[in-house]
Design brief:
The structure holds two protein chains of two kinds. By secondary structure, chain A is an alpha/beta fold. Chain A contains ten helices and ten strands. Chain A has two domains: 169 residues, 3-Layer(aba) Sandwich (Rossmann fold), CATH 3.40.50; 65 residues, no CATH class. Chain A is globular, with a radius of gyration of 17 Å. The longest helix of chain B is centred in the first third of the chain and has 32 residues. The two termini of chain B are 29 Å apart. By secondary structure, chain B is mostly helical. Classes of the chains: A alpha/beta, B mainly alpha. Chains A and B meet through α2 and α3 of A and α10 and α11 of B.
């Protein structure tokens, strides 16, 4: 058992994962877990494998070894199309909306696996992000960075997932929108949805999450509560710019 | 900002010699056309072009354009969802034409003519007397047969050839599709021969004269069916869940997958739509042409590609607009050039337009 494994009752439990692209290995022996309702952040330098970690959960990388369990059942090797049925949703960092579809159509696609379009769930997303209701018939590709990010999150929330995975939600946002975005994520988490988030904005992310992982060169380096990591002299110096 | 950059762009365009030549040539042709219609001769321009002649060119060009557009929609759909240019698409038209007319002949001539001659479409057109007016059921069932056979063929080819190559590069798929094209073309030649077969007798198709334009019942059929099918495809893509999911997949395949949209089911839907449209286009082309040959679809493929590229590859509305433009241009060009040069003029127009709009008329609009 690795020192980074903290719970046997996790929602998402990644153990000794090796993964990459083609023959190129990016992650080696990575452990990570998220409990029900928990807010977990992954930070680390560029090229540490943070996004690769997220993609691996959804079967979008080359799996090499280890295990990825969701609610106790193994999900590696499953078709990416079937992962969303298990109760986890993923917002990739780039190209995370259907640009040529309208805002409302994007949300409808978020609920594609349901038999009928859940109007009340669309309304719930509109209540959370009112700008999306105003823009519901607009082509998504014509929206600003912040609005796109809200749409991407709204799309991922359509099935009311147990775990929401966010890759760099603050990337490309104007500084005054970054705080707002983190507040929104806090509220999603407060409503009971577990969050696994990769963030470049490490200080802010660590100050808001329950626990954080520091990944370096595709390996676990630190794991602790967000506040402890923020207070750690070594972590501050190496990864948070002092 | 938008306007100033637009002015800057036009100024930049005007500095290019090709653009100036094109505009100059275009203006000259337009003046010449007007002078010809006015029956006057001024210097090098002018002549005597009856208005009805021009109207006839426009009308036949529109009908050809609808066929090209219909086929182009299918090609564009398979391109945007499967990420490769299907060079066998033209031969899907051929298969649709032969299979549909074979069925139409059997229904129209059963009992009175030799069954083998009917199945192989070798019976004399005037004996069978197939037309929308005299044998409407046969023609309609033939259309359905053309669609069904082409859809089944499209799905079978996907399963046998393209599915095992699903993760290959677009260029490998393109080359495979050229192989498929040859197989289909010579399969048609083997069954139906390499000669041109007469299908309908022009004298048996009712037609009427509208302001000097000859409008046949078969042209009207094409107009009605093609427009109805295009509207249906539009509604399917915009209003239904499967249509929206197809557009989503064309837009962003990875995101579609993690959203739970089943790739293989969307690909199947794409082949059904794309092949069905090709089959219908191939069958209907015979309605105006009156004959069918094993090379027909292949020869039309270049015009279909031109239409799709002109419209902006991947856009179905672009394919329709491009088809109409290519069809009408290739006919109106006959005002100035002999018949066999209509096609090169249409391609010339495509190249010129691409100089102005490299991504095509609807390029970047991405409507799937």
């Amino acid at each position: 058992m690795s020192e980074f494994k903290t719970s046997d009752e996790g929602l998402l439990q990644v153990s000794s994962l090796d993964a990459g692209y083609g023959d190129l290995q990016i992650l080696s022996d990575v452990d990570m877990n998220v409990d029900d309702g928990e807010y977990v952040t992954i930070v680390g330098p560029n090229g540490a494998g943070k996004s690769t970690m997220m993609k691996s959960v959804f079967g979008l990388t080359a799996y090499m070894a280890g295990s990825i369990e969701f609610r106790g059942s193994e999900i590696h090797g499953k078709n990416p199309e079937s992962i969303i049925h298990l109760g986890l949703s993923y917002v990739p960092q780039n190209e995370n909306i259907f640009e040529s579809l309208t805002v409302r159509e994007n949300l409808e696609m978020g609920a594609y696996i349901l038999d009928a379009v859940p109007d009340e769930q669309i309304q719930a997303v509109y209540d959370r992000f009112p700008i999306l209701e105003d823009r519901s018939e607009q082509e998504a590709g014509t929206m600003s960075g912040g609005q796109r990010q809200m749409l991407a999150m709204g799309r991922a929330l359509m099935l009311d997932p147990d775990l929401l995975m966010l890759d760099e939600p603050s990337a490309g946002l104007a500084p005054d929108l970054v705080d707002e975005m983190f507040d929104r994520i806090d509220r999603i988490n407060d409503a009971g949805t577990a969050v696994l988030m990769v963030e470049q904005n490490a200080k802010e992310a660590l100050s808001r999450c329950d626990r954080g992982y520091v990944l370096v060169n595709g390996e676990n380096r630190y794991m602790d509560s967000g506040d402890t990591l923020l207070g750690d002299e070594q972590v501050r110096q190496d990864f948070l710019g002092g | 900002m938008g306007t100033s950059s637009a002015t800057g762009r036009s100024r930049e365009l005007l500095a290019r010699p090709t653009v100036v030549l094109t505009l100059g040539g275009g203006v000259l042709l337009l003046l010449d056309l007007l002078a010809q219609l006015a029956q006057v001769d001024i210097w090098i321009i002018g002549g005597s072009l009856p208005f009805s002649q021009l109207a006839n060119y426009l009308w036949t060009g529109l009908i050809l354009g609808l066929i090209i557009g219909l086929a182009g929609v299918g090609l564009s759909l398979t391109y945007s969802i499967l990420n490769f240019a299907n060079f066998a698409h033209g031969d899907y038209l051929t298969i649709g034409a032969f299979s549909g007319w074979s069925v139409a002949y059997v229904i129209a001539g059963l009992g009175s003519l030799d069954i083998a001659d009917l199945v192989l479409v070798t019976a004399a057109p005037s004996d069978v007397g197939a037309s929308v007016a005299s044998t409407p059921v046969a023609v309609l069932v033939g259309l359905f047969a053309a669609v069904v056979v082409t859809v089944l063929l499209g799905l079978a080819i996907d399963k046998a050839v393209y599915k095992p190559m699903r993760n290959s590069e677009g260029i490998s798929l393109l080359i495979a599709s050229i192989g498929v094209a040859f197989v289909l073309r010579y399969l048609a030649a083997l069954l139906f021969g390499t000669g041109r077969l007469g299908v309908t007798a022009a004298s048996q198709i009712p037609s009427t004269n509208v302001f000097g334009v000859t409008v046949s019942a078969h042209q009207l059929t094409i107009l009605v069916v093609a427009v109805a099918v295009m509207v249906a495809v539009h509604l399917l893509l915009q209003m239904t869940t499967i249509g929206k999911a197809m557009r989503a997949m064309a837009d962003n395949r990875d995101l579609a997958r993690i959203t739970g949209i089943p790739t293989e089911r969307m690909i199947t839907a794409t082949w059904i739509l794309g092949s069905g449209l090709a089959g219908a286009a191939g069958y209907m082309r015979v309605l105006t042409r009156g004959t069918v040959g094993f090379n027909d679809g292949y020869l039309l493929l270049l015009l279909i590609f031109a239409a799709v590229i002109l419209g902006g590859i991947g856009s179905i509305y672009g394919a329709i607009a491009g088809g109409l433009l290519i069809g009408i241009t290739s006919r109106v060009a006959l005002v100035w050039v002999p018949g066999e040069f209509g096609r090169p003029i249409a391609f010339g127009l495509m190249i010129l337009l691409l100089l102005f709009r490299p991504s095509g008329l609807f390029g970047g609009v991405e409507t799937a």
